[in-house]
Amino acid sequence: MKRINLTLDEVQAFVAVAHAGSFKGAADALFLSQPALSRRVDKLEQVLEVRLLERTTRRVALTPEGREFLAHAERGLAALRTGVDEVEREVARRAASLTVACIPTVASTLLPRAFARLAADHPEMRLRMLDEGAPEVLRAVQSGEAELGLSFTGASHPEIDFQPLLTEDYVLALRTDHPLAQRAGLSWRDLLAEPMVAVAGDSGNRVLIDQALSRLKQRPMVQFEANHVAGALGLVEAGLGVAVVPRLALSVRPGAALVGVSLKQPRIERTLGLITRQGRRLGGPAQALVQALRSELAMRPGDASAGGAH
What region holds the HTH lysR-type domain (predicted)? Predict the structure, then answer.
């Protein structure tokens, strides 16, 4: 295929002359000098190896080849303008929208309130939440489906930037009428006789807890299981057992008859953070959301420590 070695400026110059019927009128329309305009048309004719315009001292007329090329040039410029307009609309749409992937605990606690702050300041913004497990959150950020994620995994991933937001401990969730509910703290040995409710074995929370307890000689036995923390808490509330959950998870059930008791020997923590693709600079909506999250965290009770990253 022969290479088309012409420029958009040259095509626009020719179309302007054809429409104006003179170099002076076209030069004025394009804010160019007549010599500069003439050079562009001359270059176009040299590239095409054909005369497009008949020039006289009184007027400029299209040659047959010029009329043929004008029709194609006008269609091409119109298509290009349409493409530019569509891209600009898409850029504007993305600038006014934000997709965030987050783990279920965050989806039911921090993120809705941060979204509310953001929507109050930017009512035109479109916000989308992808509430998934930790592995799915990581994949959504890697693929670009979400501009940022909120999770406790990804800190060691080579393609992910992890910015800590808060560190929280895991507590024992149990009904307020449970015999252990009034204790200031519990050891894992205290739970050996308790029916345990746990999240699914492949969930990020379960993996973290199992790793932390791997060195214990005796571990509580799981009797009931749910896919997510919210389901596990529902089973606890129904009186089926007790569950080890992130402290943040209990803040979403203020009316529930549940309490969280600290666990030690070992004490298990997780660090919740913002995850983005490595080196990616956050857009305006994402930066505004980060600020809203920090404002929300600053208003929370002192049961979790905010991360030091800014």
Answer: 6-63
DSSP 278: T
Report the residue count for the chain. Answer: 310
Q: What is the DSSP code (8-state) at residue 280? A: P
Output the pLDDT for position 93.
Answer: 59
Per-residue pLDDT, 124: 79
Virtual CA dihedral for 186, 189, 190, 192, nearest 10 degrees? 140
Cα distance between residue 308 and residue 163, in whole Å: 9
Cα–Cα distance, 270 to 305 (Å, whole number): 11
271, 150 Cβ separation under 8 angstroms: no
Binned at pLDDT 50, 70 and 90, residue 35 comes out as very high
pTM of the model: 0.64
Residue with tokens 């047959």: 64
Of 150, 171, 174, the closest CA to residue 294 belongs to: 150
Residue type at position 73: A
Per-residue pLDDT of 155-188, as tens digits, reads 888 899 999 999 999 999 999 999 999 999 999 9
Q: pLDDT per residue over 114-153, tens digit each? A: 999 988 888 878 899 999 988 899 999 999 999 999 999 8
Q: Which CB contacts under 8 angstroms, 24+ apart, belong to 230-238?
A: 230/104, 230/108, 231/199, 232/173, 232/197, 232/198, 232/199, 233/173, 233/258, 235/197, 236/173, 236/174, 236/175, 236/197, 237/175
**E strand or H helix at 12, and its extent?**
helix 8-20
